[in-house]
Amino acid sequence: MVGGTWDLQAGQWTDDTSMALCLASSLITQKGFNPYDQMIRYKWWYKHGYLSSIGQCFDIDNATRTSLEEFYHRQIQLKKDFNYQTESEIDQLPLDFIKQVQFDLNCSSPSISGNGALMRLAPVPLFFYRKPSLAVELSGQSARLTHGDDIAFDACRYYGALIVAVIHGESKENLLSDQFYDSHQIWFGSKPLHNEIVRITKGSFKRSRDYKDGIRDKGHIAWALEAALWAFESADTFEKGALNAVNLSDDTDTTAAIYGQLAGAYYGYWKIPAQIERFNKSHSIIVSNAPTSH
Question: Can you tell me which residues bind Mg(2+) (predicted)?
Answer without folding.
Answer: 14-16, 251, 253-254
